[in-house]
Amino acid sequence: MKFFLISISLLCIILDVHEACALDPLVLNQNSPIHIDALHGITCEEDQKKCTANNGVRIDQDGLLLNTNKLTTYFSEKTQEAQLSKVIAEGHVVIKTKENYHLECDRLTMNLGEQSLEAEGSNIKVLHEDMLLNCNHSIQYMIDQHRLKAIGDVTIKDRNYLLKSDEVIAYFNKNSEGKTQISKIVIPKDCVLSTPREYIEANQGDYDIKHNIVTLTGNVRITRESGQLRGDVVEVDLASGNSFVKSKGSRVELLIIPQKRENYSR
After folding, report:
1. Considering Cα of 211, then 212, then 218, then 221, what sign does the dihedral take?
2. Distance of alpha carbon 11 from alpha carbon 38, whole angstroms
3. Which of 86, 158, 220, 232 has a 20 to 30 A CA-CA distance from 110?
4. Chain mean position to CA 137
């Protein structure tokens, strides 16, 4: 086994790789050089086609910054040139990008060949502008499908709402400036939407980011200070705070809760 250890306290290497890969704000690009430095050096095993960096590891590539405790990089065996195929980061993983995405997790796997990313941990965070996503199991990001799936006690917070479910799927597209943005969020099973005006439960739903409209369907239950509503579908305009409830072939039910009056003694 060919083995070599670089044991200097601070090492910076540049991996110049050329295999095509879809450009994406959260994933390393195989077309550009990748700068890696580590406090405790980097160990490379040629027969395993991998390198391991430990303690205070940092990656910098075209505005994408990744910090972690341990980094393992794997290289493709297709050619003799160094072609990065997989990156595994372990221990307090933090990614920051020039498009204002911020990701925190315990373990991160980037599979550049399969164009996928998986984040794992008990308190995963994804922050973009005013939107914060939290979950306690995993996030799976399929680059070619522009789709992100969050699993495990998922919450999405913004200034105007709180969305909760056990599973959430987000879809991305490019805006007019060529920047990646979230276009739609789908909640495939039981979900809760909380706004300053109401608390809504339903079987599933979706959030149209562009029009700021959340549509919840299936056994919809709305709780407000003035009472409760039941129906099949509710559309919530997060910008105005207004909601519209309707039912498919059945009546919309309204329960009015009388306000309690205080008695004053004269």
Report:
1. negative
2. 6
3. 158
4. 12
Structure-token pair, residue 184: 């739609």
How many angstroms separate the first and last alpha carbons of the chain? 95
Q: How many CB atoms neighbour CB 41 within 10 A?
A: 16
In this structure, are residues 42 and 51 in contact, taking their beta carbons and an 8 Å threshold?
Answer: yes
* Mean pLDDT for all residues in the chain: 80
Residue 251 neighbours by CB distance under 10 Å: 8
C-alpha atoms less than 13 angstroms from C-alpha of 129 in its C-beta half-sphere: 6
Tokens of 142: 């399929």
Q: CA–CA separation, 167 vs 16, rounded Å?
A: 37
Q: What is the pTM of this model?
A: 0.79
Q: For 103-153, how does the pLDDT look when each residue is reduced to its tens digit (9 = 90+)? A: 999 999 999 878 889 999 999 999 988 899 999 999 999 988 889 999 999
**Nearest Cα residue to 7 out of 45, 34, 39, 49:** 39
For 140-171, the DSSP string reads: EEETTTTEEEEEEEEEEE-SS-EEEEEEEEEE
Cα–Cα distance for residue pair 66/135, rounded to 1 Å? 20
DSSP one-letter string for 38-61: ETT-EEEETTTTEEEEEEEEEEEE
